[in-house]
Design goal:
By secondary structure, the chain is mainly alpha-helical. The chain has a domain at 39-66 and 78-144. It is built from 6 helices and no strands. The protein is globular, with a radius of gyration of 15 Å.
Length: 146
């Protein structure tokens, strides 16, 4: 009998590799996770990535981060970015999660499950990449002493 996979540990390692710019290692771990996790576990993994993103956004924005009753807002940083389904999912899922909107995150994930496999894969990978980018920004900010 094989031991169950520790998806939390594998997800953390994938995020660490992605944050460090080690895309091949992150992709390999994410492939292992996706191959072995069921849809419920993958939803939890997406929420785990979003939680890391939320924590780093709070660190980046400090006292400008939304407080109790406040909300994060999606701002389109580059024209056309939300025209890409994977980028749109990643940004919207992260914002909904950061705002504590569990119904929206679950609905978005359910819709993603009903999409084609390539869109699903691209969207989960993009979520990881976006959160890794946020983590890199927080790390750079901390190193600068901001």
């Amino acid at each position: 009998m094989t031991a169950p996979m520790d998806f939390a540990q594998l997800s953390f390692r994938a995020l660490a590799h992605a944050t460090a710019g080690e895309g091949d290692q992150a992709a390999s771990l994410l492939t292992t996770i996706a191959t072995n996790a069921d849809t419920h576990q993958m939803y939890g993994i997406c929420c785990g990535f979003a939680e890391a993103g939320k924590l780093m956004l709070t660190r980046i924005f400090g006292d400008q981060a939304p407080g109790p009753g406040g909300m994060w807002v999606l701002e389109q940083i580059k024209p056309g970015a939300l025209d890409d389904p994977a980028e749109a999912f990643a940004a919207r899922f992260l914002v909904a999660y950061a705002n504590g909107d569990k119904v929206m995150t679950l609905d978005m994930y359910q819709a993603l499950l009903e999409s084609d496999p390539d869109t699903y894969t691209d969207s989960v990978c993009t979520l990881l990449a976006e959160v890794a980018g946020i983590c890199r920004t927080a790390i750079k900010q901390k190193r600068r002493g901001s």
